[in-house]
Structures are given as C-alpha cells and as structure tokens.
Task: inverse folding
C-alpha cells in the first residue's frame, strides 16, 4: 500500500471523512457498551442526556469545557508554529499558583485582584514555556521532551508548596492552599446559573486568537514559521523571536485555565485541580484542526463526552472509562480522516 | 554509431498505449514507446511534459489507467516496483540513492546479498565490479567511501549498481545536470560502450545538444502526448526545440554590458565553505558563477542572502561594511535574492500567492501598520505581480503549491524585482523550468542588468552561464577563479577550472591560452 498526495481535496472529501470518523467512533462506543452488557442505543442516549439533557447538565458541560478551551487554544497556537508544547498541564498549574499567590498574599479589593490574578497567571504560564523554547532556539533541545518533563517538575513543586509554605492552616491537614477571598472570585455569567465568567473569558480568548492569527503581523509570522521555517528565515522573518512570542501566548493561554478553575470554580489550589486538562487540550486542538474557533466546539464536545459518561455510568452499568476510550477513538479516527483528505491509498 | 538500431527480434522494451490521469490532468495520453536492443533513445520534453510519470509507470511506482509495459516480450504486472528491476531495467535517478557511510562496493552490493551470509562471495563480487567498471569505462575505486567521491564518481557507482543487477536497459534521468563537460564526455563514452555490448539506454534530458550527441532516436513529449519521434540524423536542435515547446523560440541575445561601479565587494573572504574568495559585482553587469554543484555555490549564496557571515576578509556593500548581517539586513541593503530551491526556500507551499508575495515585505507599510495586516494592500501587491509578470493562476488566493515551477518562479521574480534591488543574487533561476519560462526569466534578468543592477548568476548549466554572463568566475572547493570576460573561455577551459585545476596550487595553469569568440554552443560535448 502506498499513499498518493491529493493536490486539492474536494469539499465532500474534507467534510465527509471527518463526519465518517465520528460515525466510526460511535460504532466503537456501541460495541464497547455491548461488551459491558448494556444496550448501546440506551447508553448513547444516556450520554447525550447526561451532557445536554437538562439546563444543569448543559451548564456542567460548559463549565467542564472552559479549561479545555484554554488549554486547547494554548496547544493550537503553539502547534500552528510547529512548537510542540506538551506542557499545557505545567502552564495551567503555574497559572493556578500565580492566581493563588496574588489572591491570598495581596490585601487588595476583589475588583483589583480579579484582573491582577489573571495577568499574573498569563505571565507565569508564558515564563514556564519560555525556558523550553529558549533551549530549543539556542541549543536545539527538543521541546517535546522538555515541556513534557516540566509537567512533572511543576506538579512536584506544587506538591512541595502545598505541604509547606502554602498549606492552609485551616485545611484539616489536607494538602491545599488557603482560599482566595470571596470577592476575588469570578462572578457568575448569568445570575443564578452555575457558570462563571471564565467561560466568557475563554470565548473572548478564542476570538482573540483567531484575530491574532488572521489579522496581525505576528499571526502571519507564526503561520509562516509553522508551515516552512526555512523559507521564513530566508525571507527575513526572525524565527527565534516569533517562537518566543508564540511561547508566551501559548503558555499564557494554558495558565488562564488554571486561573479560571481557581478563581471561578474551586477557590483554592489542590493537587487534583486538573484531571489532565493540559493533555486533553492536545486532543481538543487536534480535533479542531488547530482552528481557534473550532477549539470552542471541540472542547464542548469533549467535555460533553466526559460529563455525559459520568451521568450515564450512574444510570447504566457501563464504566466511565468509556469516555476516555471514545475520546481516544475519536482522535485516532479523526487523524486518519485528516490523512485521508490529503492522501489517497493505492494498492501495490 | 548513432544510426537506426538493428532490429534483432522484437524490442527489449515496449510501452503501448500508456494513459495516466491525475484528476483532470492527463499526464500521459496514449503513449507508445519501443526500445530496440543496442540503441540510445532520448526522451525529450519540458518539465511537466510527462517524462517522469511515464518512467514511474514503467517502474511500477504508478499504475497506468490503461496500457501495458512489456520487457523482453513479457508483460509486467502493473504497480509492482520490483518487477521492472527483476526484468532487467535499471534506473539512475537525478538524485542519487547512495549511503554516504558505506564504500562504493557495499553500496553496489546493498540489497543483492542475503543478510545472513555476511562476507560470503565478497571477493567474487569485488572482481565482478572491477570487471564491469573496466568493460564500461566506469573508473571507481570499489573500496572508497561514497562520502569521499565526487558527484561524477557517485553517478558511476549508481550505474555500476544497475549493471551489477544485470540491467539490460538503463534509464538515466537528467544525468548530466551535475557533471562537468569532461565528465559528461566520459559518461557518453560509457553509454556508447554499453550499447555496443548490447544494452539499451533511455536518456531523459532537456539539453538538446546532448540529445543530439548521444541518442540515435528521439521521442518528444509535450503536455502528456507524444508529439514527435525522429532519428537524430533527420533533425537538428532547432527543430527539436520547436517540437518540444510547440512554438518558435528565440533565445535571449544579450547586448554588450556597460559596467558601472562595484556595488558588492568580497575581498579575500573566508567562511564556512568558502576559501579566500574575492569577487566584485558591478552595476549593469551579470557575473556568472560556474561550477559543479556542491563546490561552495551554496555557501556564497548564503553569504549574500544574509544567512551566513564571513569569518575573515572584507565584505562591502556600496562601499560600506554591512552591520549585523541577516536576511532582513540583506533585503534592507538592496539585495534581491532568488533562492536555489523555490519550493523549500523561496515560497511557502501552503500559503496563498498573496501571502507569498509579501513574504519579504510583510512587516512594512502599507501591508502592515503597527502590527496589523492590511490584506487589501497585500492582495493588490499580489495582483500587480500576477499581471506584470504573467503568473498563470486561478487567483491571488490560490495556494502556491498548485502552481507550476515556472509560475512559482515568476512570482518570486516579481517579489524580488518589484523592490528595485541594486544587487541581485540569482541562484539557479531557471533550473527545472520549461523553455518558455526560461526565456522569460532570463530576459527579465537582462532587463534588470540594463537598468543598472549588479547580478550574480549561479548556475550548473554552463550554456546558461556562457550565454548570459558578462564576466565568469568558476568556483571549485570553495575557491574562486579569476574573472574571465565574456568570450575569453571555451567550455572545455572552464571545465578544467571546474575540475579544480588552475587554482594557484597547480603551477601556472592560469596562463592557459584560451580561445576567443566562443559563443557557448557547448560544441565540445558533441564529440
């Protein structure tokens, strides 16, 4: 078997194949549900109901989607420049740490703390990615390795802080930080509904990233560097500087996930703040084909599967792990679909 | 010897009715080809005429939509790359497929010996390679590392590789592109011996004088169709060129240059890949740089492009040493750069024409103002280039990867010349272009010269250098020959320099008597 490049894929091909990927994912999920002894149709019905069947379910899905939009954007921005940032998890925790430090150590009114914490998170996340990027541009160190390993360093650092200087004296011995003041919490998006302004900030960020990519000089530079760094360098685009700017943007976006989770939802910093939002952000970005507006859609889709699977497993006897499998399957099929929009398989 | 080959039995290779479509494009349209035993058949055609597709079908890389491939009377199964090799067809690609860190002998044996019998029959294999190189006049030391071999020697190893596998049919794809005139002569001698020994050769080229010199028959492809089949005795270069292009062609005939002040000066400059290079590019003059590829052309181009900085020597632009040297500084200093590889360096394949048109000026007003792009201005820039330089494309939003090489080069040309550069670096500006585009690009360079630009033309095509250049330097192993004014050097003399003779450490060869008035017909190749 060989692959033959398709110069200009038809619209039917570029839309039909991803749709087919989703269908294939559903079929795999149905098979797994049958293996677990449940009725596949009922299982999917319960997942959809759990994700969007009620106002509460829908808001829960959007709440869960919020950090995924941020990490998805972070990955999409970086991957667009062929900067393989696998460290959104570390940048998220850096953002959460900055949020908690500013929120608990500065005695300021909430109206001042809210923007300050966000700014602090942005800077902290950007700085966390700056190191690996400088190592890459100066010494040629592979950023996949450094950003990945930074995730563990950051988690251990947080663990150290939560067991030590940041430990909440009122926390009954649990490793968690003091909470940030009540008035420094992100307000509800709509009064009475359990959805905070972090979601609004995520939507604004997605639009902002889209504007940056399509309308600004930096966006042009980022795309040029990502598509062909050799041609970009020849044309006089400062590749190293562009990568540094990309890193600050990407790391900052991932850190906003930590900011939004702490200031909007949890109120304090714990070691289980993120169930892998940084890694899931990679899936979100890939499913969205790195399009910032698509990230919003795919983040809600991914969050819906997780939330829906939670609800489903309470009602049917199918474990929630089906959500992870569905997600992994969706990603694999989607990657295959993308490949097949660009290449045709030939025998022989 | 070039005459109609004796028809002993049937043809050794027969392609009949080969048709291959890629979407709406018909790459091969009902092509018939017969190759007789002991003949050299030239396959002539512009880029995109369908030569490569046809050979890929023969080798089973593609399967044809219709038609059949027969070798020695047996039909090959379509789409099986091994079948042609086993049937005795050997191909020498333009880009060699050798492992640098193995010896010539190891490269030849690679893939022919079972892995679990190391060393067995090595002595015999060596003897066979030595015998083959003697019989075919392919001088190669079997024990030499490929990394240490010259390009000509590597090509000989490739040919030996095919012969060692008992190839009865040799296909050579643009084999002379990387050779000095002397090496080309030696290659032709080898091919003559091969056909005398009963082998058959398909010679793919767009160099007409070489086709006339080596082939007995010529098949001309145009737009995927066979438009002509002639014997070389019944035709001439002019007729072949017309057949290939489908129209009358007039090659550029440059007038005498009126050189002005030196705009860019290198004085005993050394750097990575360059040794003691002295060069002066004058206004209103084309300086040609001849040489076998990989002898420092890339290093010199990188230096002028802003990608590399000299480690020693004096480097001046318009009388001043440049400050911090970078591609952006080079552009700012008025150097227009036409890069060697338009696909990988000159353009971004998945960018639109608009985005590619502003690649070097995207940061300047009016295309960009305080960090915001003005796409209306960018598109106008692209539309201007498309109109002025006759870039054939569906529109400025088309991704540039969908354009032909010629149209891609026209966009680069427009991007560069539109900035009115004082110095132009033209690195292989017409490589791989069809004749129409070649003439266009060359005339644009001549117009820029007449408008006062100082041009450095780097090319591996000696004919092109001889036709366009007002002065010629030869580069060899990073060293630069003295400047030879137009008409003072014959191709064979330049070939001596290209082979590395005459660079000071070889006695007084610089005093070599040179002929005069040679117009660069490349006649010495047609021995």
Result:
């Amino acid at each position: 078997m060989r692959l033959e490049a398709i110069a200009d894929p038809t619209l039917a091909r570029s839309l039909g194949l991803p749709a087919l990927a989703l269908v294939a994912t559903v079929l795999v999920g149905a098979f797994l549900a049958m293996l677990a002894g449940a009725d596949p149709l009922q299982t999917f019905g319960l997942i959809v109901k759990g994700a969007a069947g009620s106002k509460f379910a829908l808001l829960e899905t959007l709440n869960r989607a919020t950090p995924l939009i941020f990490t998805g954007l972070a990955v999409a921005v970086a991957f667009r420049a062929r900067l393989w940032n696998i460290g959104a998890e570390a940048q998220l925790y850096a953002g959460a740490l900055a949020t908690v430090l500013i929120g608990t150590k500065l005695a300021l009114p909430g109206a001042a703390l809210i923007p300050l914490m966000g700014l602090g998170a942005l800077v902290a996340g950007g700085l966390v990615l700056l190191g690996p990027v400088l190592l890459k541009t100066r010494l040629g160190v592979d950023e996949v390795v450094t950003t990945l390993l930074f995730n563990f360093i950051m988690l251990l650092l947080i663990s150290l802080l939560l067991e030590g200087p940041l430990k909440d004296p009122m926390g009954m011995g649990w490793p968690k930080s003091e909470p940030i003041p009540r008035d420094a919490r992100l307000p509800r998006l709509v009064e009475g509904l359990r959805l905070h302004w972090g979601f609004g900030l995520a939507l604004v960020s997605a639009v902002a990233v889209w504007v940056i990519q399509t309308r600004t000089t930096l966006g042009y530079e980022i795309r040029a560097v990502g598509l062909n760094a050799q041609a970009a360098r020849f044309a006089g685009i400062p590749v190293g500087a562009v990568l540094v700017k990309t890193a600050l943007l990407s790391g900052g976006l991932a850190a906003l996930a930590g900011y939004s989770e702490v200031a909007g939802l949890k109120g304090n910093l714990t070691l289980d703040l993120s169930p892998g939002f940084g890694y899931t952000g990679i899936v979100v970005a890939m499913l969205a084909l790195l399009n910032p507006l698509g990230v919003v859609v795919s983040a809600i889709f991914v969050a819906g599967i997780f939330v829906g699977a939670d609800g489903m497993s309470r009602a049917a006897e199918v474990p929630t792990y089906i959500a992870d499998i569905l997600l992994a399957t969706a990603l694999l099929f989607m990657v295959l679909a993308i490949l097949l929009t660009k290449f045709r398989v030939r025998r022989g | 010897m070039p005459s109609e080959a004796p028809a002993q039995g049937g043809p050794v290779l027969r392609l009949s009715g080969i048709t291959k479509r890629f979407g709406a494009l018909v790459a091969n349209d009902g092509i018939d080809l017969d190759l007789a035993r002991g003949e050299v058949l030239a396959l002539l055609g512009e880029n995109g005429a369908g030569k490569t597709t046809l050979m890929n079908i023969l080798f089973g890389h593609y399967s044809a939509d219709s038609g059949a491939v027969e070798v020695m009377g047996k039909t090959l199964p379509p789409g099986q790359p091994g079948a042609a090799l086993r049937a005795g067809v050997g191909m020498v690609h333009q880009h060699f497929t050798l492992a640098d860190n193995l010896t010539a002998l190891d490269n030849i044996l690679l893939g022919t010996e079972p892995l679990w019998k190391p060393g067995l029959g090595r002595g015999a294999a060596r003897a066979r390679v030595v015998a083959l190189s003697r019989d075919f006049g392919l001088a190669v030391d079997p024990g030499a590392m490929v990394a240490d071999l010259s390009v000509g020697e590597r090509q000989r190893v490739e040919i030996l590789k095919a012969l060692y596998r008992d190839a009865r049919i040799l296909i050579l794809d643009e084999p002379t592109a990387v050779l000095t005139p002397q090496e080309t002569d030696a290659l032709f001698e080898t091919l003559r011996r091969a056909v005398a020994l009963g082998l058959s050769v398909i010679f793919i080229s767009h160099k007409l004088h070489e086709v006339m010199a080596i082939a007995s028959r010529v098949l001309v492809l145009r737009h995927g169709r066979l438009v002509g089949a002639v014997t070389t005795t019944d035709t001439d270069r002019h007729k072949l060129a017309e057949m290939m292009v489908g129209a009358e062609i007039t090659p550029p005939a440059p007038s005498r240059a009126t050189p002005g002040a030196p705009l860019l000066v290198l004085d005993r400059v050394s750097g990575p890949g360059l040794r003691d290079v002295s060069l002066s590019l004058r206004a209103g003059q084309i300086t040609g740089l001849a040489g076998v590829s990989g002898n420092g052309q890339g290093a010199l181009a990188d230096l002028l492009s802003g990608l590399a900085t000299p480690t020693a020597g004096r480097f001046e632009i318009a009388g001043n040493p440049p400050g911090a040297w970078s591609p952006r500084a080079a552009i700012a200093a008025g150097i227009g750069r036409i890069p060697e590889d338009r696909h990988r360096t000159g353009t971004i394949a998945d960018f639109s024409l608009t985005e590619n048109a502003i690649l070097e000026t995207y940061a300047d007003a009016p295309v960009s103002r305080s960090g915001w792009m003005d796409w209306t201005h960018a598109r106008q820039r692209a539309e201007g280039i498309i109109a002025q330089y006759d870039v054939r494309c569906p529109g400025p939003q088309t991704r540039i990867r969908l354009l032909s090489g010629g149209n891609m080069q026209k966009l680069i040309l427009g991007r560069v010349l539109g900035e009115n550069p004082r110095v132009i670096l033209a690195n292989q500006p017409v490589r791989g272009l069809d004749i129409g585009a070649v003439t266009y690009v060359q005339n644009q360079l001549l117009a820029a010269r007449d408008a006062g630009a100082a041009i450095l033309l780097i090319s591996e095509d000696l004919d092109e250098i001889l036709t366009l250049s007002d002065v010629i330097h030869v580069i060899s192993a990073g060293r630069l020959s003295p400047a030879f004014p137009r008409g003072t050097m014959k191709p064979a003399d330049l070939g001596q320099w290209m082979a590395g003779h005459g660079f000071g450490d070889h006695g007084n060869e610089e005093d070599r008597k040179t002929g005069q008035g040679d117009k660069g017909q490349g006649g010495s190749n047609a021995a």
About this structure: The longest strand of chain A covers residues 2-5.
